Amino acid sequence: MADIHAACFTQPRPWSAAEFADLCASPLCQVSTLEGGFAITRRAGPEAELLTIAVHPDARRQGKARALLTESLTELQSSGCEEIFLEVVADNHPAIALYKAAGFTELSYRKDYYNGVNGSKSAALVMRKIL
After folding, report:
1. Confidence of residue 14 (pLDDT cuts 50, 70, 90)
2. Is the dihedral of CA 53, 56, 59, 61 positive or negative?
3. For a FRET experiment, which of 24, 48, 50, 58 has its CA 20 to 30 Å from that of 4?
4. Hey, what domains does the chain have and what are their CATH numbers?
5. Among residues 11, 20, 43, 31, which one has the least CA distance to residue 119?
6. 3-state secondary structure the chain
7. What are phi and psi of 74, to 5 degrees?
8. Cα(100)–Cα(95) distance, rounded to whole angstroms?
9. pTM (predicted TM-score)
10. Using one digit for the tens of pLDDT, what is the confidence trace for 83-98?
């Protein structure tokens, strides 16, 4: 997962193998996987958060991100989760289009939220979907 994440993200920074191991070990986290991609959500009561979704650049444009998101949302809804939130870099237009197509709406904007390379900052959109 760390290798795929590193191939997908520079901002926010890619997560380490140790960070993924910790998330996967948590009983609150749900991991969905496909060849070349994965999604991780974390549940807290009736709410959940999409922590990350990543598809390796070589495996894109095949519907994998949509399939991972759909699987994650279906599993959360079937377990009684009522809503899900996510944060996305505000200029990540393909991801935002994916989330909007899945029924997410923009909730808020966080200026200079993500730390990038060489001290750069990026804004985040907070999005929400009722399940």
Report:
1. confident
2. positive
3. 48
4. 2-130 (3.40.630.30)
5. 11
6. CHHHHHHHCCCCCCCCHHHHHHHHHCCCEEEEEECCEEEEEEEECCEEEEEEEEECHHHCCCCHHHHHHHHHHHHHHHCCCCEEEEEEECCCHHHHHHHHHCCCEEEEEEEEEEECHHHCEEEEEEEEEEC
7. -65, -45
8. 9
9. 0.90
10. 999 999 999 999 999 9
Q: What is the pLDDT of residues 15-73, one digit of tens each?
A: 899 999 999 999 999 999 999 999 999 999 999 999 999 999 999 889 999 999 999 99
Which amino acid would we find at residue 120?
A: S
Q: Which two tokens stand for residue 78?
A: 């079937």
Structure tokens belonging to residue 50: 């999409």
Give the β-pairing of 83-89 and 47-55. parallel
